[in-house]
Amino acid sequence: MRPIHLFSYSLAKEVFSVVTIKTQRISSTHLEKNFEETDPGFTNQEALEESNRCLYCYDAPCIKACPTGIDIPAFIKKISSGNLLGSAKTIMSSNPVGASCARVCPTEELCEGSCVLNHSTSPIPIGKLQRFATDWAINNEQILFKPGSPNGKTAAVIGSGPAGLSAARELARFGFQVTIYEAAEKAGGLNTYGIVSFRLPQPISFWEVEQVQKLNVQILTNTKVGKDVSAEDLLNSYDYIVLAAGMAHVPDLHIEGEELEGVFDAIEFVKSTKSGDLTRDFTGKRVAVIGAGNTAIDGATCSVRLGAENVKILYRRSVDEMTAYDFEYEFAKQDGVEFRWLTAPKRIIGDEKGRVTGIECLKMALGEPGRDGRRSPAAVTGSEFILPVDAVVKAIGQTRHLSLIQALGLQHENGVVKADKETYQTSHPNIFACGDIVFGKGKGDAMVVTAAQQGKLAAYAIHKQASAAGTA
Amino acid sequence: MADLSINLAGIKSPNPFWLASAPPTNSGYQVQRAFDAGWGGAVWKTLGDPILNVSSRFAAVSFNGQRVAGFNNIELITDRPLEVNLKEIYETKKRFPNHAIIASLMVEPKQEKWHEIVKRVEDVGVDGLELNFGCPHGMAERGMGSASGQVPSLVEKQTYWVKEAARTPVIVKLTPNITDITVTAEAAVNGGADAISMINTINSLMGVDLDTWNTIPHVAGKGAHGGYCGPAVKPIALNMVAECARNPRISVPISGIGGISNWQDAVEFILMGATGVQICTAAMHHGFRIIEDMIEGLDHYLEQKGVSSLTEIIGKSVPRYSDWGNLDLNYNIAAQINTDVCINCNKCHIACEDTSHQCIDMLTGEDGRSYLKVREEDCVGCNLCAIVCPVDGAITMVETAASQPPMTWNDRQAALNTAK
């Protein structure tokens, strides 16, 4: 062994760690700048160098670590050979929301975490290469896929988020005539409204929506099933239904003061920052965010970027039980967000005008692990204290679309639709459910990439069922 | 999708990508795996009298951490009995009737030996023959391979003998271990070759171990030259293909070989006159699956160029390749440095200062910042600065106004002769 090899490897590692902590300052005057995508993406040269560093493993662990099974070595090889169209096709054929996932996937826990180079040098930045290839397709206005020849079957998809889009895309490629019902003004669901702009700008989500529309999929926006069109109508008009409506608003804390001015639902709060029309109401304010999941991080970082002076995340458990990803935690800390562990809200305090002025909290202690494996918190008697705040952002999970589920007559457990783990078929043989609407508890399954995969699998099951029916 | 099929001297394949005669085409199992993966054709590992091989056969050059920049082997032709190979060729052809199977052949330079082997391989249904006049090691010491291929009269004679017996198209594979490959190429054509393929491997010694003083690779402490191939040889191969393609006396199709690693390399060979290409090292490095990007990348390229059939671009760059004497002496380019992109590594300055024409100045602006500037009037347009520059777009070679009308060396000499 020549020692010079060891030296050059460690040198390379150092260089990469420097690159990964690149960050930008938050502007107190130009809020719009704070909501631009923080990561500039790879230059051609960076993409070329990193793609050539990929070993192009056979039976690669990164493919297995990707819930949608993207052939990662193949798409990276195509970047290095200059076949960017092919690269984008490889990505998007496995993952209909692959451009969004390139930005929001917890890659350290998935593909990059499994890269064999973790054991020798440093892993390939798969997410950023995926973004490079899909950005190319976006910038070059490529339409990547064609609809299948019509099979005479129809399908309604309820919800145009990752799971719904994914199911619709695959069904359209099989030749189904697909109609998506979307309650919101624009399609894309979580990717359009639920993920902060500085990580996922809306045009990326719109491009993915457009890719699906180009397969002759009709998307009816501002159309809520159960209000603008009845569930019964859908059942009567379509051969199959894919229920991919996701989850609803943040539930109430059930504490005093929740109705005060300055208390926000984190989902609605993030959504309000996505259109680009930013409120100045947070400038110089003190904000408390309740919860420590993905949305809580988004609520907290959005508050910082709207100019809040101090942002605290209050979580009744500890850092170990937090459902936010490590990179989100790091990101929030870099934005200056403070974390108050083992802290639960007791009541929100307002002034005579009904505006939030503070929040009374309780210190908590962790007991034995509960049913989900996480240790359950219990209040410490007499530990009350008051934090002076101007706004409270609630991010303690999301409620369920119970009435919709009931209108479709589906079996469920506390609003979580019961579906087969492989086919995503519900208790109704022609209704399939995927995405957050079938998500119970835990960490991984709530990912965008998992929703996309479930959408694909639901579509495959429908196709299989329809084909079997056709030949019978 | 564009039509990628080719017809090389009557040998048809669904795409231009063939596996070259080498370890990847050693058996029916391998060739069938390759066809399943999408390869258009395969030149079966050279058949002949089965030989003995040594252990420790390959070596490669890692260039600054990039593995397999160049590759070398001292493996010989097939070490499996002819009957076994023939049976597997038959089975493979039966399973893949639309893929090209070409038998690479090497026997002693005797008429009856050639007649016999040609008949036997054609009987099992090969689509064509490739005569291995190129292998530089081992077999050459026995008067075969490149030992034949370096002697134009032997090339011509053996090709002629093969053509006497052959019913399928005959490709003559040429060795690069020769001063002027067009001479042996012409000999092959004169012998009746239907096509030529090039290049075979280049004589090479991969390295010497600094601790043991053994050669790399070595066999029990002894080494012998091998055959060099892989990405590093591509420019040598491309020139040889181009030289043959532009030579009017070499009027047969060319199968391009030498360092082709992806669809872009393949397009270069095809533009320079190859009808199809053969690949080995890239497959040995990554497996047969590289074919997917090769086919897709080529298809997208043709689509983007608005070309519906690959055959339309064969040889399109050949007219642009000529002799030095036909280059315009009055054409000028000069380097321009984009200081917005430049990262001030000063590599261009020192390259120019020490080893070229001393025309890149290191300057300091009014704001105290360093910057580099080309004195255009002193720049000879050598490209060295742009070559050593590590940043895309920082140095561009830009055409500058010519002070004189175009004039080549040959024009100049002709003018001088007329003036005399």
TrEMBL record, chain B:
It is an enzyme of class 1 (oxidoreductase). The keyword Metal-binding applies. Its EC number is 1.3.1.1. It catalyses: 5,6-dihydrothymine + NAD(+) = thymine + NADH + H(+); 5,6-dihydrouracil + NAD(+) = uracil + NADH + H(+). Residues 333-365, 370-400 form the 4Fe-4S ferredoxin-type domain. It comes from the Bacteria. Heterotetramer of 2 PreA and 2 PreT subunits. PANTHER family: DIHYDROPYRIMIDINE DEHYDROGENASE [NADP(+)]. Belongs to the dihydropyrimidine dehydrogenase family. This is dihydrouracil dehydrogenase (NAD(+)).
